[in-house]
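Propose amino acids for all 336 sites.
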């Protein structure tokens, strides 16, 4: 009798796993299967097993190949930077709009909002669904000369620019710098060998991509978050049912502290003398410059490409004005 009871309990314990839905996920991490992003996605996948989904992960060091394999149906889902996943969901792809989230606290407020069930309809677009959003760190400007610390001094400088990042191309042209078309696999090499004067990346690239070589003795990192980069997990709409998809977003939101601890460690590991501090007055001017460009890339005005979601820009504006109600944008006629 006892043996039968134990056998029944054992079957009950393995039943959820035996009936778990299997799905494949292409995962981009510039380091591959040993990288921090891949390991975070592994944690996400492990937690999702308790919700009946067994994700089989495939690591990629080339983001374009990961997206291509997802598009061709070789994976049911893909984990990649939001800059690359924008075509699947313009709303969540606008999280990294230039200058839109000046602080990690603002990012936390936004991601908490997006993880709520009432935001679920916005996670679906064009036959795809966002299953989770995890911080990847603020994007900073790495420069080979510390004198490049204002927008005016970027004029004429060569900037490694991802050729699919329309908003970055727009901003480089706006400050009269030179676009040097690049991709995720070669922008670091171009900066490190001196082919370009500046590159845009989160803190992890300082060590992982050896950007300290490009900085050298004269350069540094401008201490102003140009955008908040995130890793977004995108699946075809039919892969998970609505309840499980919502659980996935809640699991990803639960990883926010883990992700931020990793980002903080990476930023704090950069020597203090490598950071270039800019005056507060300059920051106010940059915020307005970025805001004007966001509006143009929302509306397609003045020759700008249509990049950003009006709904996302409006949400992030409300978050900024909640944390900094005295900002001039909060009373501007052309609020986002």
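Proposal:
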């Amino acid at each position: 009798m006892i043996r039968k009871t134990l056998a029944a309990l054992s079957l009950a314990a393995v039943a959820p796993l035996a009936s778990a839905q299997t799905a494949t996920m292409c995962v981009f991490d510039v380091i591959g299967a040993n990288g921090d992003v891949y390991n975070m996605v592994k944690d996400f996948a492990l937690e999702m097993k308790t919700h009946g989904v067994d994700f089989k992960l495939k690591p990629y060091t080339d983001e374009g190949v990961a997206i291509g394999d997802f598009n061709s149906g070789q994976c049911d889902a893909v984990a990649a930077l939001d800059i690359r996943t924008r075509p699947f969901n313009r709303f969540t792809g606008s999280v990294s709009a230039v200058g839109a989230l000046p602080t990690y606290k603002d990012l936390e407020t936004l991601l908490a909002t997006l993880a709520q069930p009432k935001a679920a309809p916005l996670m679906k677009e064009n036959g795809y669904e966002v299953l989770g959003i995890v911080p990847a760190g603020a994007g900073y400007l790495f420069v080979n000369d510390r004198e490049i610390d204002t927008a005016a001094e970027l004029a004429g400088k060569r900037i490694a620019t991802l050729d699919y990042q329309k908003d970055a191309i727009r901003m480089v042209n706006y400050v009269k710098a030179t676009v040097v078309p690049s991709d995720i696999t070669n922008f670091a090499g171009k900066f490190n060998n001196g082919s370009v004067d500046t590159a845009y990346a989160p803190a992890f690239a300082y060590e992982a991509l050896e950007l300290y070589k490009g900085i050298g003795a004269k350069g540094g990192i401008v201490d102003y978050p140009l955008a908040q980069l995130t890793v977004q997990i995108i699946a075809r709409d039919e892969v998970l049912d609505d309840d499980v998809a919502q659980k996935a977003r809640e699991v990803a939101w639960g990883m926010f502290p883990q992700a931020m601890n990793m980002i903080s460690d990476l930023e704090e590991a950069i020597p203090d003398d490598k950071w270039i501090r800019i005056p507060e007055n300059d920051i106010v001017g940059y915020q307005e410059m970025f805001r004007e460009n966001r509006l143009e890339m929302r509306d397609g005005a003045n020759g700008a490409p249509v990049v950003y979601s009006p709904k996302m820009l409006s949400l992030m504006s409300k978050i900024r004005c909640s944390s900094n109600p005295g900002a001039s944008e909060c009373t501007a006629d052309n609020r986002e």
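The first helix runs from residue 2 to 18. The beta strands are 21-28, 53-60, 77-81, 124-125, 128-143, 158-162, 178-182, 198-201, 220-236, 275-276.
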